[in-house]
Design goal:
about 140 residues, alpha+beta, six-stranded mixed beta sheet, 6 strands, disordered C terminus
Length: about 140
């Protein structure tokens, strides 16, 4: 496995690039682009608790939050990744959209050398608001 100049393995860098493309409103509204990024066996457990399959995601994604050029966008931070095995990368990061934070993880897989990296699994977990924010509770100690 080669490494890029910044020390990130190429496989991780490619998965991160795919993850960032998936957040782009132009991609989210194009089923053709989404098909290129999602593995046919894709499954997601969304922040709402909804279980999404490949077909359900293709049908719903253009209308979901983050899919409008002039609407709210996902703001990712702290994205890191690790190669779990040849052809399998695990990413973790946080997002904010319309004031809501979520911790996220994705598994990206490549089924054979030279094939594109595709998102195989995704999970989002809501992060409760902090004290002093709308919906916040007691201050942390």
């Amino acid at each position: 496995m080669s490494r890029e100049p910044d020390g990130i393995p190429d496989d991780v860098a490619e998965a991160i690039a795919g993850e960032l493309r998936f957040m782009d409103p132009r991609v989210r509204t194009s089923r053709a682009h989404v098909r290129q990024l999602l593995d046919p066996d894709f499954v997601e457990v969304g922040a709402s608790g909804t279980r999404w399959t490949y077909e359900k995601m293709l049908a719903a994604l253009p209308e979901m939050e983050g899919g409008s050029e002039d609407g709210p966008r996902y703001e990712p931070s702290g994205m890191t990744g690790v190669v779990l095995a040849p052809g399998l990368v695990h990413l973790t990061y946080e997002t904010v959209i319309t004031g809501r934070r979520a911790r996220r993880c994705s598994l990206w897989r490549r089924t054979r050398e030279g094939a594109p990296w595709r998102m195989y699994y995704h999970q989002a977990t809501p992060v409760p608001p902090r004290a002093g924010q709308p919906g916040g509770g007691e201050p942390r100690r």
